[in-house]
Amino acid sequence: MGSRDPVIVGIGWSDYPVAPKLDSKDHHVLAFRRALADCGIEKSEIDGYLCASGFSQNVDDAANMAEYLQINHRWIDGTSVGGSSFEFFVQHAAAAIKARQCDVVLVTYGSDMLSRVGRMLGTSTFSTAGTRVPGASQYENCWGNVLAGGYAMAARRHMHEFGTTPEQLAEIAVGVREFAGLNPLAQYRDPITVDDVLNSRMIADPLHKLDCCVISDGGGAFIMTTKERARDLAKPPVYILGAAGAQTHWTISQMPDFTTTAAAQCGPEALGQAGVRPEDVDTIQIYDSFTITVLMLLEDMGFCKKGEGGQFVETGVLRRGGAQPLNTDGGGLSACHPGMRGIFLINEAVRQLRGEGGEAQVPGCEVAVACGSGGYLSCIGTVVLGKEGRS
Amino acid sequence: MSIEALRETLPLRALPEPDNASRHYWQSAAEGRLVIQRCTSCGVHQFYPRAMCVSCGGDTEWVEASGRGTLHTFTIIRQNRSPAFAALSPYAVGIVELDEGVRMMSNIVECDEEQLEVGMALEVLLLQAADDVGLPFWRPAGG
User: Does B75 sit within 8 Å of A153, measured CB to CB?
Assistant: First the structure.
């Protein structure tokens, strides 16, 4: 292709899963400094910045963080579509780099959710008696639904239409936990079985506690630039082969089809840009907010047919040693989930493509997919990354 | 849970803040009528209320809904860390597909957990929660 092909050159993580001494900005900074050190680029070279406001809106949104980090950008994007914002960022930054709107783009994320807020995210209504709820949430919050409940309703419908079983969903959690055992930082590392998942407490039927992601602290950063600029940097670049995003709804009650996400659109689109078939993908990093999220995104991207996700996960293809290992860092289900996990999908895909996966390394890893889900299966972003550029 | 017991849960809930599009919907429910929007151009029903038809961008009018529907999907919330709902757990949250084709979230009441089933027939139960707000609960049809 060309010298302005967009690539990822630096990745960094802050400390996770529990970092009581760090606040959200500390997480941004720590991850940023580690990403800078990873690639050896000078801070002054950064001329593009991306940051999604999380639960601390007006504190760590793009404009505030650009000032705090003193990024003298000529291109900025604060798209906030939930945990998949970072997959959308890759799409946006790749286009901006190709269009010469910027040359070196920084993405940062930081959250002190576990230490500051606690384990509220999935099982709280976020509103109290006597208050009035504006916006689209006015049609939902009065019913006491929680985040886990939204995904549970998708799981119920999937089971109704396709006969998907709790055992099949549990298999996803079991496989991801095996990888968490290889990650010294993972929040939960002890092996689990399908029975362990099924015997864990029911949170929102049919989802058990071990069908749900953990809540942690954590942060991440990555740096994108051109293939040309990457030449003399510390690490080999990872190429953006495809990136696409789409949205079907925002609040769960507006989901048009409870068994199909926007990945049915952006998955094939991103794979098509890359010229890659699903079976060519060596490792899959999916936003595992809940086990059902993984199942639906796999189907929608085309790794198996709609409704056959249950049988697909039972083949073991996603397990360690399988043909397409899933969430090789232990995922949100076992390693870390600070609120918006999408950045960890990108970083882990890059780590695998560089061959830096250690015990969790996928042999011969040349193509990776990162697929993020934001909101309630609402805003989906798919990114295809490669060890080599497109020919 | 009896209707009387259900009424006692109303002050525990975070109620909607009506806006220009939704004011008539919530007010009507407070007066015992379930209304939804229908496009005056393309005839499509929609929920939740908006300032235009989301199908074609046209104008909408209010029509009274039949108050009948089916259970599209559901869950039973067994843990809610918000104090208001912690006391109510477990409770059923579902997506109801109205006979007019639109869907809304609600609590499925007057129904044992074991009776809940995707596709079951439901009817609306409107309860006034404030001067300007009524909440449409749903229960098994003919119950």
Answer: yes
CB–CB contacts below 8 A, A to B: 130
Interface predicted TM-score (ipTM): 0.97
Show residues of chain A in contact with B51, CB under 8 Å: none
Do B82 and A133 make contact, defined as CB atoms within 8 angstroms?
A: no
Q: Give contacts of A203 with chain B, Cβ < 8 Å.
A: 78-79
The answer on pLDDT for A370 being more than 60 is yes
- Give the gap in angstroms from C-alpha A324 to the nearest C-alpha of chain B: 32
Please give the Cα distance from A249 to B103 (Å, whole number).
Answer: 13
Interchain CB distance below 8 Å, A144 and B77: yes
Q: Are B14 and A128 an interchain contact pair (Cβ–Cβ within 8 Å)?
A: yes
pTM equals 0.97
Domains of chain A in sequence order: 6-116+214-386 (3.40.47.10)
CA–CA dist A258, A158 (Å, integer): 7
CA–CA min distance B17, chain A (Å): 5
Does B88 sit within 8 Å of A138, measured CB to CB?
no
Q: Is the peptide bond before B48 cis (omega within 30 degrees of 0)?
A: yes
- Series of mean pLDDT values for 10-residue runs along chain B (143 residues): 84 92 98 98 98 97 98 94 78 97 97 96 97 98 82
Say if residues A264 and A122 touch (Cβ distance below 8 Å). Answer: no
- Assess contact for A132 and B26: CB atoms under 8 A: no
Residue A53 has pLDDT above 60, yes or no: yes
pLDDT band at A228 (very low <50, low <70, confident <90, very high): very high
Interface test with B, best of A114, A117, A139 (most B CBs within 10 A): A139
The CATH T-level fold of domain B3-140 is OB fold (Dihydrolipoamide Acetyltransferase, E2P) (2.40.50)
Compare CB distances from A144 to B91, B103, B119 and report the shortest one's residue.
B91
**Inter-CA distances, B123 with A186, A256, B27, B98, Å:** 47, 22, 20, 9
**Is A136's pLDDT higher than 80?**
yes
Task: Please state the φ and ψ torsions of residue B95, each to the nearest 5 degrees.
Answer: -110, 120
What is the model's pLDDT at position A120?
Answer: 72
Q: Where are the domains of chain B?
A: 3-140
Closest CA to A378 of A303, A307, A291, A289: A289
B122: part of which helix (H) or strand (E)?
A: strand B121-130
Average pLDDT over residues A164-175: 98
Chain A CB contacts of B17 under 8 Å are 132-134, 138
**For range A107-117, the mean pLDDT:** 91
pLDDT on residue A390: 79
Q: Residue A301: name the closest of A254, A348, A267, A271 by CA.
A: A267
